[in-house]
């Protein structure tokens, strides 16, 4: 999961997908991580508002720490999901040709929305964080179903 600073959207998606994987007892089979396109917040915990809203729904993000996308991530991960088009464009710019098929918009896995991008809640209020969670929960279900179909 990739967003800008790796403190709001991508760690929320990371935490929700980890939760679903744990519920399905697949933690030894599926690895999840998140990163940012920028290094603004490397080493920091997710935004306190992201953590608060996620925890209300049963997702603990407190152990996650922001990191920046690395060149080795393209080879290491089977699926690299961008939270919006600017992230996807960034990833495409730095991704080796042989790994381009791994890059997708995160919301391409949703079943309940026509939105294509996860909006950045950083400068908004509580409703923005709740909306991100709604989108993330929907897309994470789709991501997990897609992974299970290809196994």
From TrEMBL:
Q: Which UniProt keywords apply?
A: Hydrolase
InterPro entries xrefs? LMW-PTP, Ptyr_pPase, Ptyr_pPase_sf, Tyr_phospatase_low_mol_wt
PANTHER family linked: ACID PHOSPHATASE (PTHR47439:SF1), LOW MOLECULAR WEIGHT PHOSPHOTYROSINE PROTEIN PHOSPHATASE-RELATED (PTHR47439)
One Pfam family name from the record? LMWPc
**Gene3D superfamilies reported for this sequence:** 3.40.50.2300
Report the sequence similarity comment from the record: Belongs to the low molecular weight phosphotyrosine protein phosphatase family.
- Domain Phosphotyrosine protein phosphatase I span(s) in chain numbering: 2-146
UniProt superkingdom:
Bacteria
Q: Note the SUPFAM superfamilies from the entry.
A: Phosphotyrosine protein phosphatases I (SSF52788)
Has keyword Hydrolase? Answer: yes
Instruction: Spell out the CDD domains in the cross-references.
Output: LMWPTP
From the Swiss-Prot or TrEMBL record, give the protein name.
Low molecular weight phosphotyrosine protein phosphatase
